[in-house]
Amino acid sequence: MPTYTHRALSPEDTPLLEQATLGTINWCGPRFTLTDVRARPEFSHYTRCQPARGDFGIAAYHDEEPAGVVWALYLSADDPGYGYIDETTPEISLWVSEEHRGLGLGRMLLQAIISEATTRNLNQISLSVEADNFARNLYLAEGFTPVVGREKDGVMLRKLS
N-acetyltransferase domain location, by residue (predicted)? Predict the structure, then answer.
């Protein structure tokens, strides 16, 4: 496995989160563009890490290039994400660049965000994943369970306490 360096996300990471959001929504091939990510509210709210509202995340780099990122956002009921549960449950997103997939980086990042959420004394974290996305198996293996009544939307929850 390659060697990765890690750092916490900051509000200046919008370009990285734009790249990551584009990657997550295009997991099965090109469906959307960077212009879509920037212009469409259902995507653009994933590109802003705001520590002041409690958001947090971790970026992984290999040779100074982004290899992956995981982030947790507190979105509001007025601007919910696809995996929205409530305003006290952060929704996570996870992206690994194509050349770093299958090497364990995604699992490592997912475990790191679960650990950070636990350290922050959160009760749970949520996400949304399309049914055919291979990442769903990773989420299931790491303790996420489908939310009853929201299965069609791919909403999953990981209890922490």
Answer: 4-161
